[in-house]
UniProtKB/TrEMBL annotation:
<dbReference type="InterPro" id="IPR051466">
    <property type="entry name" value="D-amino_acid_metab_enzyme"/>
</dbReference>
<dbReference type="InterPro" id="IPR042208">
    <property type="entry name" value="D-ser_dehydrat-like_sf"/>
</dbReference>
<dbReference type="Pfam" id="PF14031">
    <property type="entry name" value="D-ser_dehydrat"/>
</dbReference>
<dbReference type="GO" id="GO:0036088">
    <property type="term" value="P:D-serine catabolic process"/>
</dbReference>
<dbReference type="InterPro" id="IPR026956">
    <property type="entry name" value="D-ser_dehydrat-like_dom"/>
</dbReference>
<feature type="domain" description="D-serine dehydratase-like">
    <location>
        <begin position="76"/>
        <end position="181"/>
    </location>
</feature>
<protein>
    <recommendedName>
        <fullName>D-serine dehydratase-like domain-containing protein</fullName>
    </recommendedName>
</protein>
<dbReference type="GO" id="GO:0008721">
    <property type="term" value="F:D-serine ammonia-lyase activity"/>
</dbReference>
């Protein structure tokens, strides 16, 4: 049994326990569960009434790390302008900080923190073939991110360029975006307004 299966099964068991405890007082009580990794990795979700897989449509680097998606499945990227470059440190500074990416991070093989990974713009899309060894956000302040590059990748962006970043945790990044744009430039409804009065 995988970690995703164990986590999902544990959540269903706890919800079933709660439902059983309160069923006599609330006979219409339903089990509603949100679980993005399970949505991709399991074929059966158990005895639940409603399944809410969260940001299942976006995915993110955490999801990729646990195996519920591939880099090419991630369908959200934060566009951030490069505001400065520091050749001596092989770093860029982007206008994209904790309020854009949250503070979730992955730990790279060398022990460094990664708050997001660069993707190469490609016309009306992006490519992830250079993402694994490419620039990554190594630290965040509220509004800005420090991007660590290598000698091979430092030249990829200059001040004023718009850079694209796969988030570590897309839930908060997607919510922080003021607007969504498709890769062909069309605006996508963010659904921030209440749908009822």
């Amino acid at each position: 049994m995988t970690q995703v299966e164990r986590t999902h099964e544990n959540a269903v068991d706890k919800m079933k326990e709660i439902q059983n405890r309160y069923q006599s007082s609330f006979p219409a009580l339903k089990i509603s569960l949100g679980d993005t990794p399970a949505a991709s990795m399991l074929s059966s979700f158990g005895p639940i009434d409603e399944f809410r897989p969260g940001n299942f449509v976006f995915y993110d680097l955490q999801q990729e790390e646990i195996g519920s998606c591939h880099l090419d499945d991630i369908s959200v990227a934060m566009a951030c302008p490069v505001v400065a470059v520091h050749p001596d440190r092989l770093q860029w500074i982007i206008y994209g900080g904790g309020i854009h990416f949250a503070k979730d991070f992955l730990t790279l093989k060398d022990g460094q923190k990664c708050f997001g990974r660069w993707v190469k713009p490609d016309g009306k899309s992006w490519v992830t073939s250079e993402t694994a060894g490419g620039p990554y956000i190594s630290s965040l302040s509220q509004e800005h991110g420090v991007v660590q590059c290598t000698e091979r990748t430092f030249h990829l962006c200059m001040p004023g360029d718009l850079s694209l970043w796969l988030p570590v945790h897309s839930c908060m990044t997607a919510d922080a975006m003021g607007e969504y744009y498709s890769t062909d430039g069309g605006k996508i409804d963010h659904y921030r307004e209440r749908l009822w009065s």
